[in-house]
Amino acid sequence: MGFLGAGNVNTQITKYSGLQVQTTSSCVPVPIVYGANVLAPNCFWYENFRAFAQSAGRKGGKGGAKGYNYACSIMMGICEGPIAGIGQVWQTSSTTTSLISLGLSLFKGVSPQAVWSYLATAFPSQALTYPGVAYVASANYNLGASASIGDNNFEVHGVLYGSGVNGVDADPAQVISDFLTNPQYGVGFPAASIDATSLYANAGDSSFQTYCWANYLAISPVLNMPETASSILTRWLKLTNATAVWSGGLLKIIPYGDSPVTGGSATSQKTWTPNLVPIYDLGDEDFLNVEGEDPVKITRSDPYATYNQQAIEIQARSDSYNTGPIVAFDQGAINRYGRRIGSTVAAHEICDAVTAQTSAQLILQRGLYIRNTFSFKLSMEFCLLEPMDLVTLTDAALGLNATVVRIVEIEEDSEGALTITAEEFPQGVATATRYPTQVRTNGAPDANAAAPPINTPLIIEPPPSLTGGVVQVWIGASGRNGDPNWGGCYVWASLDGASYTRVATVSSPASQGVLLASLPAYGGANPDAANLLNVDLSQSVGVLDSVSATAAAAGVTLCYVDSEYLSFATATLTGPDQFRLSQLYRGLATLPAGAHAAGSAFCALDSAILRYDLSPSQIGQTIYLKFQSYNIFGGGLQDLATCVAYSHKITGVGAIGPVTASLSVGAPLDFGLVVQPIAETDDFGDLSSQVNALIDLGTLSN
In terms of C-beta density within 10 A (0-12 exposed, 13-18 middle, 19 or more buried), how is residue 176 classed? Predict the structure, then answer.
């Protein structure tokens, strides 16, 4: 059986003639992505579909089934540009990879945008520049054996990426401004009609931008579905505890916050200060009299009808952007009125758990504690009032004594009278305390996490006493630094160092390491009680166990140390992954039991070692071996091109010749006369060669 043995198994294989597409759509809207969120690309062009005949690797002389892999030239649209880049890429919902690994080039969607050079050369009639559209392209996109693109999802670093408080998401103030005014994809709102003082950080600092920063509020919206601009803006403001006010020909964005807040990132703290000064103190002399009506009307909501538990559904970045709820609740209200659960708020523009917890808490508190609404009428002398202003109300009949309320709505009738609607203003309930939270995950590990490469492998040819006279190579491999994600590796062999064939699999890590101290030579009788062998197995996180003296003498704990084969009876743990081996049996299988320096390679020759038969005809040839790691789930396969090639010259030391074979079983040999031709020969090496076979020919008297 050779490394490159051949065989043949015939299998019926389907061959595709074109890209397999499940569905296709025309006139798909180009999404807009802010911050960092996940998005599936849309294939809008492909050509040059190709099929490549494949043959599975052969092992032990058995042929592999033939099949096909496919490739094509492809372009996939992502979203409006320009974007900052692409982060992780998910395939089939769980496999994480990157654009580089997939062979995709990114065009960020700048305007103007250069044409893809491959398209200009190979298909000049189709060479469009696609300005303002971010897309990826590959001249040789690997489709695998399915001839389909698969389920790809990109982590898009979109517009305003990293402008938010957490350095990843987008700043809500800048998102709102860009959404309204961007000349390429905005809603066409005039920039001059936005009140910049209320939106952006300023000296006062009661701005919406500073409020979001201090409260750790940041968003990453993906706009890929038809929806009115007013609905989108209303949702963003609800999640950031603010509202929009049209006053004096300007759009103002004003937070509901009612207490000073200091917070932000680890490197930049900001303080938001609300305006808490009432503009007017209103009493009976200020309210317009309406016959038969009280000057101030109050509407009280039923506390049993309010919600004391609120959930928002986010796309958690820490959970690969999977959707899941973040829940806020008020235990005091639950104890008093029973659990009242509100409808879950869809908030897929939130990807940070801390932001989500603050947002959910603010939504809960506003719905739970703002229950009283006041209505009253004023004359035109109060026409400068606008929503979100604070005033005080005094009405003895209602028990109001300079009670602060916040105006939420103003209506003017044909006679100039102002109908004011205000809400109670219990200061403190519009501020949320930030506390740690945990995103719910499905707990499933990444079955396609990249497997680590191997440590330098053990590649040896044992003597005949260990191989039974057969030419063998023994291989020991383990994941680098004992990585628990390493599940094994495929062994690929080559005789020319260029073309490789898969020949075997290593499914268990070898107990590999190095000597912590030197081991002297030994020429006495076994066991060697004078010397200790100290080894460090941290590179493989191996374990060695003690056995009986009888088992050690029989080679049950056989190890390889720098060309010497030895075993041990006692293994004592002396430190993390470090062992002291005693009662050694030296020079097993070969002689002599030489000295070994600290740092020499050590490997236990147990069941984790791959034993592979070679052909005698391969003696003298050099083989090249690559070890392609996979993870504990069998996925995350290394790229074979990145695997290190290890060379080994086959010496055939494990084989024994006919003379030695006959002598070892005690068969008498007659070599004939000196003048006769030589019929059988063995090469025992020179005087300096290692002794590989010991034959007891009896005593001199025999």
Answer: buried
Enter the DSSP assignment of 644: P
Dump the DSSP string for 243-262: EEEEETTEEEEEE---S-EE
Task: Check if the beta carbon of residue 302 is closer than 8 Å to that of residue 308.
Answer: no
- The CA distance from 343 to 332, in Å, is 20
Residue 241 has which token pair? 């505890």
| Residue 609 DSSP one-character state | S
Rg (CA), the chain: 39
**CA 223 – CA 498 distance, rounded (Å):** 49
- What is the C-alpha end-to-end distance of the chain, expressed in Å? 41
**Residue 451 class from Cβ within 10 Å (0-12 exposed, 13-18 middle, 19+ buried)?**
buried
In the sheet where 280-282 sits, what is the strand order? 280-282, 390-395, 400-412, 418-424, 372-378, 296-300
Q: Give the residue ranges of DSSP H helices in 381-526.
A: 464-467
Strand partners, 16: none
The residues facing 613 across adjacent strands are: 472
Q: Which residue matches tokens 């050099």?
A: 622
Contacts of 173 (CB under 8 A, 6+ apart): 199, 200, 207, 208, 209, 212, 253
C-alpha pair distances (Å), 463 with each of 392, 469, 590, 647: 99, 8, 7, 20
Contact 627, 512 (CB under 8 A): no
pTM summary value: 0.66
Note whether 488 and 508 are within 8 A (CB): yes
| 112 alpha-carbon distance from chain centroid | 34
At residue 690, does pLDDT exceed 60? Answer: no
Strands 564-575 and 578-585: antiparallel
The CATH code for residues 277-301+371-427 is: 2.40.30
Round to whole Å and give the CA distance between 81 and 106: 11
- Give the 3-state secondary structure of 178-189: HHHHCCCCCCCC
What are 594-648's pLDDT values in tens digits? Answer: 999 999 999 999 999 999 988 888 888 999 999 999 998 888 889 898 999 999 9
Q: Amino acid identity of 673?
A: L
Q: Which residue in 599, 560, 539 sits closest to 461, CA to CA?
A: 560
- Beta bridge mates, 418: 378, 412
Integer Cα distance of 268 and 63 in angstroms? 64
Cα(96)–Cα(201) distance, rounded to whole angstroms? 39
Cβ neighbours around 465 below 10 Å, total: 18
Q: How confident is the model at residue 469 (pLDDT cuts 50, 70, 90)?
A: confident
Task: For residue range 577-590, list pLDDT tens digits in order.
Answer: 999 999 999 999 87
**CATH class of the 303-369 domain in this structure:** alpha beta
Residue 302: other Cβ atoms inside 10 A = 8
Cβ–Cβ under 8 Å, residues 492 and 629 = no
> In the chain, where are the structural domains located?
32-157, 172-272, 277-301+371-427, 303-369, 458-649, 656-702
